[in-house]
From TrEMBL:
Residues 1-52 form the Rubredoxin-like domain. The keyword Lyase does not apply. The keyword Transit peptide does not apply. CDD domains: rubredoxin (cd00730). Involved in the hydrocarbon hydroxylating system, which transfers electrons from NADH to rubredoxin reductase and then through rubredoxin to alkane 1 monooxygenase. The lineage of its organism: Bacteria, Pseudomonadati, Pseudomonadota, Betaproteobacteria, Burkholderiales. This is Rubredoxin. InterPro entries: Rubredoxin, Rubredoxin-like_dom, Rubredoxin_dom, Rubredoxin_ET, Rubredoxin_Fe_BS.
Amino acid sequence: MKTYICIVCGFVYDEATGRPEDGIAPGTRWADVPESWACPDCGVAKADFEAVEI
């Protein structure tokens, strides 16, 4: 499982926890997150996230 961070606001998406409040189940890989999903904090597109190691 990997972690991705929004390069604009710093919001963190963790594949292990997903984003249930947006309908993204825990364990959902980044590649399977819909392209239409946007950062819940600042609204930028999925393309504005980078993989990080925490």
